[in-house]
Amino acid sequence: LAEDESSNAFIEMALSGAHQANEDMRANFVERRITRAADREAALEELAKKGYKLIIAIGYQLVPAVIALAE
Fold first, then answer.
1. Between the chain's N and C termini, which has fewer beta carbons within 10 Å?
2. In this predicted structure, what is the pLDDT of residue 6?
3. What does the pLDDT look like over 12-63, one tens digit per residue?
4. Distance between CA atoms of residues 1 and 31, nearest Å
5. What angle do CA 53, 54, 60 make, to 5 degrees?
6. CA-CA distance, 4 to 12, in Å (whole number)?
């Protein structure tokens, strides 16, 4: 698989697992896809401000945004 194909496969597998966990545990699961690089940090910050206790960012593209918010 090309890099993008393997990344997409990983993301789809993670998303499938999240949907299954949502069903099994009746969790409040919200999916948000961030397509523009410039919006990544702001989108994650918005979720945190809305009170989400657990935010899972999947994909290497989100690493800089997660690090920036963690600091």
1. C
2. 66
3. 898 899 889 889 998 778 888 888 889 999 999 999 999 988 898 888 889 9
4. 25
5. 145
6. 12
